[in-house]
Amino acid sequence: MTAAGEVMTETTPLTQERIVRWFADFLAEILDTSPEAIDPTAPLDQLGADSATVLVICARLREDLGARVRPKDVLQHFTAEGVARYLAGPVPAKG
Asked: In what residue span(s) does the Carrier domain sit (predicted)?
C-alpha cells in the first residue's frame, strides 16, 4: 500500500506523478500536515527531512512502490520532483 492507501501491483506504472504524490503523502504524514502543503520543488531538508528520513524514504519507496533507490540517489536529487524524475526516467546504460 502507498501512504495514501492505494494498493500497488507489478503492473501499476511508476510515473513521476505517482512518485510526487507518494512523497507529498509520506512527508505530510510525518510532518503532520496536508499533502497540499508539501512543495515538491522544495529541497527535502527544508521540508523537515534529515539523514534518518532519507533512509526511511528509501525503505518506504521500495515497500510502497517497489522502487529501488539508494540514499545517495535521494541526496543527489534532493526534491520530491527530482527523485521522481530520477526514478520514472530511463535507467542509463552501463558503459
From this structure: 10-91
Query: CB–CB of 26/63 below 8 Å?
Result: no
| pLDDT band (50, 70, 90) for residue 31 | confident
Which residue segment(s) compose the domain that 70 sits in? Answer: 16-88
Alpha-carbon distances of 59 from 52, 94, 95, rounded to whole Å: 11, 25, 28
Residue 38 is placed in which grid cell?
508539501
- What is the tally of helices (H) and strands (E) in the chain? 4, 0
pLDDT band at 3 (very low <50, low <70, confident <90, very high): very low
Q: Provide mean pLDDT across the span 84-88.
A: 90
State pTM to two decimals.
Answer: 0.75
Number of domains into which the chain is organized: 1
C-alpha grid cell for residue 46? 527544508
Which residues have a Cβ under 8 Å from the Cβ of 7 and sit 6 or more positions away?
A: 1
